[in-house]
Amino acid sequence: MLRSAVAHVLRFMRRHHSVNQADFGGGVSQAHISRLEKGETSVTLEKLEEIAAHLGMHPLSLVTLAFGASEQVAPIQLLERIKSELESVDGLAQPLVVDNQPAVHPRIIEAGKVRDEVQRLKALGHSKAEVSRIMGIAKSTAARHW
Are residues 52 and 6 in the same domain? Predict the structure, then answer.
């Protein structure tokens, strides 16, 4: 249902702004716009951003229209719901700070701690077997971090 709503909204807004499928250019091909408008494919956030920019709109405007159509809710009602949800998590007071650092998986963090401890015990003169016993890890794990 959402895919067909996106197709309908995209067709409607493109015609409303008198934009042809071929006018998009850049990273959005005419074939891609055609497939979107036929509901044959989904749009990524990056493509949605490009499409919205070409239409002179914010991407959330297109998303709001699409979800409103999909849920048969007036866009203004949907925006009120979104506002309420954001207020409940203090999401309106300040912009979220985006950390551009890639997220590090907890296992990688833990492996770094194990490596550091193995290296510390090694520097104190312990053997791999002793490090394994002291840390309660497999000998192969101690050897991997040796």
Answer: yes
